[in-house]
From TrEMBL:
Keywords: Glycoprotein, Signal, Vacuole
Organism of provenance: Eleusine coracana subsp. coracana
Subcellular location field: Vacuole
Secretion signal span: 1-31
Pfam families linked: Str_synth
Name of the protein: Strictosidine synthase conserved region domain-containing protein
InterPro entries reported in the protein's UniProt record: 6-blade_b-propeller_TolB-like (IPR011042), Strictosidine_synth_cons-reg (IPR018119)
One GO MF term: hydrolase activity
Domain Strictosidine synthase conserved region: 166-253
The organism's place on the tree of life at top rank: Eukaryota
Keyword Nucleotide-binding: no
Protein family (similarity comment): Belongs to the strictosidine synthase family.
Gene3D superfamilies xrefs: TolB, C-terminal domain
Listed GO CC annotations: endomembrane system; vacuole
């Protein structure tokens, strides 16, 4: 998701007004009692000076990492407290354009040239890391890192260029990559315009690892964002930042090709990740607007949601809370621990 600013608050207020007429606009659903896990008491791994925004996190086939795409266009690797963060990958432009390494120039002014890595995922068979770069397209780098290769900048079936490549996941059996192009109209830096103008030009796409072709699986979508292939590989979950929903696209079985609502969410989702139980973690970049309809409506509980866990059927079973002002872009579960990424913050969180 794009960097938040004051415009986002205004946008969310406008979107929130819809709740007056449509109370279920961003209403979450649950199957029973919901576990609450606070994140504000976890560990923090500060990012290197001058960079921020670990929007997406990934771990390689050896379990090393996390790897994180950050604001200056690089993908960094965490190698433990003794070594810290090191550069793992970068776009073809990163070392060719001096502005990309000029720390005095704000990243917002250079990311369209230097790249802005968002979704990340490894192919466990090959060790390759796939990168959804908001501006440069779908990219890949080998197990040893270095300069990433641009695989695609447009869809092969309709020829339409990518405008805002965002989330991705890899089918670990086939190597196929599923990813989103959040808008055909607005690039990442105009992220809030997607919501303010109710843009529904996003696409859900597939990169075929064998044919090297990109096909559009679904078009005309409202702000498609995070992507996660189900643990049984029968469907792919796609988060829609607006209107706070998660859908599933069936890739196998009698429903293959169908796109159906999986869950209404209590906030504006970013990345989606599989959990260890057959469900999903959904990071919330912002809570939904909570408007008091009348005096009989109970006041909201004083907590700040930054993520939810859904079971395999889409019911909410756990929620993550944080201090006010904290937002999450990614929740990655590994070995019973939660690693937390945020497009806004200058650290990666860890909850044990």
């Amino acid at each position: 998701m794009a960097r938040s600013n004051n415009n986002l608050l205004a946008t969310l207020f406008v979107v929130g007004l819809a709740l007056l007429l449509f109370p279920s606009f961003c209403a979450g659903a649950s199957a029973g009692p919901i576990k609450t896990t606070p994140t504000q008491y976890g560990f923090r791994l500060p990012l290197p000076a001058g960079v921020s925004g670990a929007e997406s996190l990934a771990f390689d086939r050896k379990g090393q990492g996390p790897y994180a795409g950050v604001s200056d266009g690089r993908v960094l690797k965490w190698s433990g407290s003794a070594v810290g963060w090191t550069t793992f990958a970068y776009s073809p432009n990163y070392r060719k354009i001096p502005l990309c390494t000029a720390s005095e120039v704000p990243s917002e002014q250079t990311e369209s040239m230097c790249g802005r890595p968002l979704g990340l995922q490894f192919d466990s068979r090959t060790g390759d890391l796939y990168i959804a770069d908001a501006y440069l397209g779908l990219m890949k780098v080998g197990p040893d890192g270095g300069e990433a290769q641009v695989l695609a900048t447009h869809a092969d079936d309709d020829g339409a260029a990518f405008r805002f490549v965002n989330g991705l996941d890899v089918d670990q059996a086939t190597g196929d990559v599923y990813f989103t192009d959040s808008s055909a109209t607005y690039p990442r830096r105009f992220n809030t315009e997607i919501m303010m103008n109710a843009d529904a030009t996003g696409r859900f796409l597939k990169y075929d690892a064998r044919s090297k072709q990109v096909t559009v699986l679904r078009a005309g979508l409202p702000y498609p964002n995070g992507v996660a292939v189900s643990s049984d590989r029968t469907h792919v979950v796609v988060a829609h930042t607006v209107p706070c929903q998660a859908f599933r696209y069936w890739i196998k079985g009698a429903k293959a090709g169908q796109y159906e609502l999986m869950a209404d969410l209590p906030g504006y989702p970013d990345n989606v990740r599989r959990d260890a139980r057959g469900g999903y973690w959904v990071a919330l970049n912002q809570e939904k607007a909570r408007l008091i309809i009348d005096s009989s409506t109970p006041a909201p509980v004083n907590k700040h949601l930054v993520g939810v866990r859904l079971d395999a059927d889409g019911a909410e079973v756990e929620e993550l809370t944080a201090a006010k002002g904290v937002t999450l872009s990614d929740v990655a579960e590994k070995d019973g621990q939660l690693w937390l990424g945020s497009v806004e913050l200058d650290y990666v969180g860890l909850v044990r």
